[in-house]
Design a protein that fits this description.
620 residues; GMP Synthetase, Chain A, domain 3; 6-stranded antiparallel sheet; 18 helices
Length: 620
């Protein structure tokens, strides 16, 4: 079994001692994902591994799964997938957060490989991922009053010939012809041994996770058993997980944050996962009842992306006893300081940041949950791994190691680094001789703590002046009316781009643009970073896991700018402006004008040529 250490990691000295005591191989003898569940079940067979809430109602009787039961279910699922798909089958799933989702994920990795899929994707996109991954089996949620997952699954059977459909539904639900009922088929499989021999392990591919972050088209990232084990071990060690912990599991299981640090790491340490409904913190009822549930189930650790944590902090704790709580953890997006400060005010405990990346098996560095907390820091690298901040050369390659507090590109190496994308054509510029170029900008302090300064692709470059959007977002988030802020570059004919900021306000609160600008000027030290415009919007677009979706906002900012140019400056009031992300220059703008305005085409093309995006003028 993994040796997490007798003393928790609090400081850099503790981390260095931890690494020097024994080797990683001695600390982590597990070879396969299944070994984690075998070890945990042997150590505490009757302890609760998962508590499943469906509604979060006060009188709900939760479903509880022990570690011994979980091991049996995983073995049964592995046998089922092998029986259906043959040797090392590819098993995709479209499922919300359920016990069955964990069983499917870890069972698939044991017999073959898993392909977790965001069930909000459109069928054509899912079909493309299924074909690219080679998945033969699709496990999907059956008919549901709010979710259209099953309807998509039936379409996918027609789009991907030979696809085997496995449906997760309540017992007794009639099953369509040619569809496998997960519960019934699982019961027919042995759960005390594997029918196909040894489980997958070592350098075998355990999963393909699709990722595009917030900036690109989804790509399939290979995870090996070794990579996931090393990442999970690092997460359990840095978080100081113990068998006494109860962790709120609110992140979806198609995302690495939900599967590794809030999944496999927890199982490795014997933690109890509290699944707060299939929808997690996207469920308004769970947000409203969050602190009651934390008290009721004696949660010791609460987790979520910053936007979700910000939402629950709007709900009063009231007289609920949250005395069991010891810390909060957050990741997947940068933490606004105002949210961290508010968490401490509300709970009396720190909110610790985690830096993860799909290409690093989910984890890179963690601010240790047992330590004092480093304000604004994502902590130290995982044990037995290396994180460097490197200068970015003019040709885009990575150069020398940066000085303390010097901003550069974060590069990672270690056994948890993915072997690459399933399509090796995507590897260029990301994977290089075992070193992962994260694309994140950051720096280190004197103690070696890592700080994030934004995505390199998110930098706003104003006349050669590099502006970190995080600086603007953190400043605007401190305004009492602002619940969320997102800064992007808006195209400008002279400066290339100018900083603008979109803000979402707390419900029922009004504020003037002048007040927001005054706050920006007083809170942002760098004058070039003062937002040229501040746009108040009803909602800021988020990804499924709560990251701000900046490609959409960049397109919105460009459309506002070009609309003003075309309609107001040029008087072409009937013109239609379409802006999409992508292309060689990062953005494509199409302006469609009426036949009566055809004479304006040369002047309009000349105006648009001054910008950095791709532009096209067409006459309708």
């Amino acid at each position: 079994m993994a040796i997490l250490g007798n003393e928790p990691i609090r400081t850099l000295d503790d981390l260095e001692r931890f690494e020097a005591e024994i080797t990683l191989e001695q600390r982590l003898p597990e070879r396969s994902i299944l070994d984690v569940f075998i070890s945990s079940a042997a150590r505490q067979p009757d302890a609760t591994a998962i508590t499943m809430l469906m509604t979060g109602a006060l009188d709900e009787q939760p479903r509880r799964i022990t570690y011994d039961q979980l091991l049996g279910l995983i073995r049964g699922a592995a046998n089922l997938f092998s029986d259906l798909g043959g040797p090392a089958p590819g098993v995709a799933y479209m499922l919300p957060s359920l016990v069955e989702t964990h069983v499917t994920l870890w069972g698939a990795e044991t017999s073959g490989y898993a392909v977790p899929i965001n069930f909000l994707l459109q069928p054509d996109s899912v079909a493309e991922l299924l074909r690219a991954s080679g998945a033969e089996i699709l496990v999907a949620l059956g008919p549901h009053p709010q979710l259209d997952i099953w309807q998509k699954a039936l379409q996918l059977r027609d789009k991907v010939p030979g696809l085997i459909l496995v449906r997760v539904s309540p017992p007794g639900t009639p099953v369509e012809d040619g569809v496998v009922d997960f519960g019934t088929a699982l019961m027919a499989q042995p759960n005390d041994h594997l029918i196909f021999g040894e489980p997958r392990g070592g350098d075998d591919v355990a999963a393909y996770f699709h990722t595009g972050g917030t900036t690109g088209v989804p790509k399939l990232v290979a995870h090996t058993h070794r990579g996931q084990l090393v990442a999970a071990f690092g997460g359990a060690s840095m978080c100081g997980y113990t068998v006494d912990d109860v962790l709120t599991a609110t992140l979806p299981l198609f995302h690495v944050a939900g599967t590794i640090v809030a999944g496999l790491s927890a199982f490795m340490a014997g933690v109890e996962l509290l699944i707060m409904s299939p929808g997690g913190l996207r469920n308004p009822a769970i947000v409203e009842g969050f602190w009651r549930l934390v008290a009721q189930y004696k949660a010791t650790l609460v987790g979520g992306v910053p936007t979700a944590i910000g939402a629950v902090l709007q709900v009063p704790v009231g007289d609920h006893d949250i005395g069991a709580l010891r810390a909060g953890l957050t990741g997947a997006a940068l933490l606004p300081p105002a949210v961290g400060k508010r968490f401490k005010e509300v709970t009396g405990h720190n909110l610790y940041e985690i830096l993860g990346m799909t290409e690093a098996s989910g984890l890179i560095s963690i601010d240790p949950l047992c330590g004092p907390g480093g304000v604004g820091s994502v902590g130290w690298p995982l044990p037995y791994t290396q994180v460097d901040v490197l200068r970015l050369n003019a040709d885009g390659s990575l150069g020398e190691v940066c000085a303390v507090h010097e901003i550069g590109v974060i590069a990672i190496s270690g056994d948890h680094i993915s072997p690459g994308y399933r399509d090796p054509d995507h590897n260029d510029g990301v994977f290089n001789d075992g070193v992962l170029n994260s694309g994140d900008l950051g720096y280190k302090d004197e103690q070696g703590r890592v700080y994030i300064a934004g995505r390199s692709k998110d930098l706003i470059i104003r006349s050669g002046h590099n502006i970190d959007p995080t600086m603007i977002e953190n400043a605007m988030s401190t305004h009492p009316a602002v619940t969320l802020a997102a800064a992007v570059g808006q195209p400008d004919a002279y400066a290339g781009e100018l900083p603008v900021c979109f803000v979402e306000l707390h419900p029922g609160i009004e504020v003037t643009g002048e007040d927001l600008q005054a706050h920006a000027h007083s809170s942002i030290d760098e004058r070039p970073a003062w937002p040229k415009q501040i746009y108040v919007v009803e909602t800021i677009p988020l990804t499924m896991v709560g990251k701000i979706y900046k490609p959409s906002l960049r397109c919105d900012a460009a459309k506002l700018k070009i609309t003003d140019l075309v309609h107001n400056d040029m008087g072409l009031f009937g013109a239609d402006i379409d802006v999409v992300d992508g292309g060689a220059r990062g953005m494509r703008v199409t302006v469609t004008i009426a036949e009566d305005d055809r004479a304006s085409v040369p002047a309009l093309e000349k105006e648009l040529a001054a910008y950095l995006f791709e532009a096209r003028v067409q006459v309708q």
